[in-house]
Amino acid sequence: MITAKYYQRIANRNISGILKHLGQTQFWPYEKIRKYQFYKLKRLLDHAYAHVPYYKRIFKEIGITPKDIRNFNDFKEIPILTKDIIREKFHHLIASNISKDELHLNSTGGSTGEPLSFYQDKNYEQWADPARIRGLYHIAGCEPGDTCAVLWGATRDLKKDYSLRERLRDYCKYGHILLNAFNLSNDRKWSFYKLCRLLKPKLLIGYVTAIKDLAFFLDEYNLEFPTLQGIILCAETVEDYSRAYIENIFRAPTYNTYGGRELSLIAMECSYNNGLHEVSENNYVEFETINLEKYKNAGNLIITNLNNYGMPFIRYRIGDIAIPGISQSCGCGRGLPLIAKVIGRTTDVFVFPDGTRVAGEMFIHLMKDFPLREYQFVQVSCSRIILRYKRSDLMSEELKRTILRTYQKYLPQGTTFDFEEKEGFEKTATGKFRFVVNNSSSGLL
Ligand SMILES: [Zn+2]
User: Fold this and answer.
1) Domain 349-443 of CATH type 3.40.50.720
2) How far is the CA of 274 from the centre of ligand 1 (A)?
3) At a CB cut-off of 8 Å and minimum separation 6, what does 423 contact?
4) Centre of ligand 1 from the C-alpha of residue 322, in Å
5) What pLDDT, on a 0 to 100 scale, did the predictor assign at position 153?
6) What CA–CA distance (Å, rounded) separates 214 from 218?
């Protein structure tokens, strides 16, 4: 798509320097990357100590200053930043020397089902954007503006699908062919497939659940998707068998990615399938030891973003569990450290009798506007959904009505949406609870 390529070239002018830099740094030796991270970390700590009230207090409490942090081991002295602390100390985490106009408010439904709001500054975005271009396009031999089939949620407002105007704009500006992954009916998949046949995308990007769902559709109707250079898997954990199935149906290699709205792209996979390379130029990743019988060496991910000075996330517990890579060398020549596997991020698809399929991601995404700390959506039958919430979240009748109104827009007529109060939630083997569960037999993929 020539318009999109041209547009992207102009739009990305101001980040072209960082993009070029990231093209080189990824091939630096491991040790050099660690030194570079430490340099960026020290700068962030100096800033946080001088200008962020929360960190000024933390340093005082533990009786050190940034000068005392001489290596990554010393860095562990800084207490972990949890989502509860962010909610509680929100205003104390904002830097006093950065204007509010420079800050962008963002939020997440949270992969663990705990909504969270936070600020990100311009510097954060200037590093996040090129890292995304590197990890989602360059990795598969593509460029921004190349035609790309996207299975993603309509995130800007609450409606059932993208409008024609949105579709045209996204195609002309980004080269994107959109399919709303939050609601995948067969009709929508048919028109998306026909559009892809016509426009021949080079790349397919989307939620694992949605891509797998499209693969089942192609398989069922014996349809051949246009030849792709790669498939970028986002937002969820992918099992090997699902991946093999997707690669087989689309006849193209998959590239796994891991990220979150709080920290953008955290890790990306290369074509050597050695695990995921950390985006070390933007984030410093640690593994907090936990004991999981099923997964040896697995740890809670503790991540420091090295670029967001507006509201620094230092040693942030994102709520995902991962296994570090055993070897730190990869055949691709990248020195970026490796994560072997991110575990525990999976969602179900809810299926309804009229053929509507709603990805669990949508339920989580919509939850970001509500104050529930822990919740779980369960489809108990083909026409009944229950939202379970924790008693301590003190759900009011008015909040229930607002939640109901929001979710009913997405559900087929005749679906019952009920609430159920719980003392707490059972954790799975990975120590997390499943926040979207399909217990009805119709939803088994
Ligand atoms: Zn590699």
Assistant:
1) no
2) 6
3) 390, 391
4) 18
5) 67
6) 6
| CB-CB contact of 230 with 141 (8 Å) | yes
Q: What's the DSSP call for residue 81? A: B
- Domain spans of the chain, in order of start: 1-346, 349-443
- Residue 267 CA to ligand 1 center (angstroms) comes to 11
Give the CATH number of domain 1-346: 3.40.50.12780
| Tens digit of each residue's pLDDT (9 = 90 or more) over 299-317 | 889 999 999 999 999 999 8
| β strands within 306-443, DSSP E | 316-324, 338-343, 349-351, 357-359, 375-381, 384-390, 416-422, 436-438
Lowest mean pLDDT among 110-119, 202-211, 303-312, 390-399: 110-119
Tokens of residue 193, six digits: 């497939």
pLDDT tens sequence across 60-81: 999 999 999 999 999 999 999 9
In one letter, which amino acid is 402?
T
What is the C-alpha to C-alpha distance for residues 324 and 286, in angstroms, rounded to an integer? 9
Are 283 and 268 within 8 A, CB to CB?
no
Number of Cα atoms under 13 Å in the Cβ half of residue 159: 6
Determine contact, residues 242/196, Cβ cutoff 8 Å: no
Cα–Cα distances in angstroms (integers) from residue 241 to residues 95, 110, 251, 362, in the given order: 46, 26, 15, 24
CA distances to 212, 241, 298, 314, 322 from 217, in Å: 9, 17, 35, 43, 31
Interval between CA 212 and ligand 1 midpoint (Å): 25
Give φ, ψ of 296 to 5 degrees: -70, 145
Residue (of 97, 98, 94, 60) closest to 79 by Cα position? 60
357: left (phi over 0), alpha (psi -120 to 50) or beta: beta
Do the beta carbons of residue 95 and residue 46 sit within 8 Å?
A: no
Whole-number Å distance between alpha carbons of 431 and 427: 5
Distance CA 266, CA 322 (A): 12
Rounded-to-5 percentages of helix, strand, coil across the chain: 40, 25, 40
CA of 196 to the centre of ligand 1 (A): 30
Rounded to the nearest whole angstrom, what is the distance from the C-alpha of residue 330 to the centroid of ligand 1?
5
Q: Which residue has the tokens 């991020």?
A: 345
User: 323-338, pLDDT tens digit by residue?
Assistant: 899 888 899 999 999 9
